Amino acid sequence: MLAAIVASSLGFIDGSILAIAVPAIRGDLGASLPQAQWISNAYALTLSALILTGGAAGDRFGLRRTFIAGIVFFVAMSLVCAAAPNAPFLIVARGLQGIGAAFMIPGSLAIIAKAYPKAERGRAIGIWAASSALTTALGPILGGFVLSTFGGDIWRAIFAVNLPLGMLAIILLLRVPNDKPSRPRRLDLTGVVLATIAFGGLAYGLSAAGAGEDGGTAALVLLSIMAGVAALVVFLIWEMRQQEPMVKLSLFRNRAFSGANVATFFLYFALSGVLFYLPMLLIAGWGMDEATTGFVFLPLSVAIAIFSGPVGRWADAIGPRLPITAGSLMVGAAFAGLAVATGAEVHRFWQLVFPLMVLMGLGMALVVSPLSTAVMTSVEDEDTGAASGINNAVSRIAGLIAVAALGSLAAYRYQSITGGGEGMPGFGEPSGGLPPSLEAARMAASDAAFSLLAWTVAALCLFAAATAWATQTDRRGKEKKQNPASPKL
């Protein structure tokens, strides 16, 4: 249990603190907005493409052995990130770090499943989830405090701290009895390559679309997106022809399973976009210190830690339809509130932004457990592992695409207001002492850009709510069904 909590916290803390540190990294390395997007997306891309393979590797080579290997590689690449001399180097290192995470993250939950009998497994997973959520909440607060106290150059310590945490996790794992591989499984490396090209091409094209002169030509953007779409089509055809596919596409014939994953994509697209760009707005746009900005992440983690258990039991009693729908609407309302506040240029963190993040956290707490319930109960028992892996990958791909697409949207809006003149910093870039008139224009443009972003994700939350209401069932609906097969698309 302790090893799983420490190891999973490595990945969760690393991602949440990074959002706080992005302005400092941009200032120190001179990174443009597209480069800042790829400091996040390089990690998300390799993690998304490899996470299902990471789970299969645990079955093939042994869970503990694969888990330790993932932690070692993740920590080693974290140290490489800490030593990055420039933005392109850091982007490559982050991509390699994501490879380690893909073999580390699935093991944190799977090792609990193997260590505890079924009668105790639910309680054990609940302890793991709550502990991981709380450590994730503390990460940005402590990271923000360190950045505020010691200055922007200390951002390298965010990656270096993974060394002692990783060593602790490995020491704990070495005391866990070694497990034998459950069954030989073929690793779908061709599928991994195709998925990486597909999602990488889409993410690159979407992020370059709003990069202006730094992002290449429109032809390059179009070519990248077309290559991504073509690779995605080939990937789907390849997976349909495999005996042991990385993604079991037949599961999507189930309406409830497909609906849950569509809702997951919309919600995590919205959540990932806001949690990446809101700290950038607060620090680089409003001039807030990192210590205060770190509290942005607190309501989400605390709400999930406190309410996931009760909400899960509620979803078991009435079905996932109502909790997912209500939670999605609450999240959408929170993001719409952020859009109104930033659009009106009201810079009140504790009076407006933080309460809205509390509302968002409560909404996500209503969603997380019922979404998992909807995914797990919509498939047969032998497919629960594949279903869980797909849903996990969907949420991460949503974050990858969100950071790319929403950054382009915000940059386009920002440039349309500022004109992109010489001496004007880009969206989310530290201002560096502009004249008062330009500083006022920059701040107004930053607010307008984030407001458009927030309105966009608020609309997507409405789509998630509508999808959940249309595809999920309540308890009465389940009881009335005579055919054990779920409705088909």
Automatic annotation (TrEMBL):
It comes from the Bacteria. Residues 1-476 form the Major facilitator superfamily (MFS) profile domain. The keyword Transport applies. It is a multi-pass membrane protein. InterPro entries: EmrB-like (IPR004638), MFS (IPR011701), MFS_dom (IPR020846), MFS_trans_sf (IPR036259). Keywords: Cell membrane, Membrane, Transmembrane, Transmembrane helix, Transport. It is found in: Cell membrane. Pfam families: MFS_1. The chain crosses the membrane at residues 37-55, 67-85, 91-113, 125-148, 154-174, 186-206, 218-238, 259-286, 292-312, 324-343, 349-372, 393-414, 452-471. SUPFAM superfamilies: MFS general substrate transporter. NCBIfam families: efflux_EmrB (TIGR00711). Belongs to the major facilitator superfamily. EmrB family. This is MFS transporter.
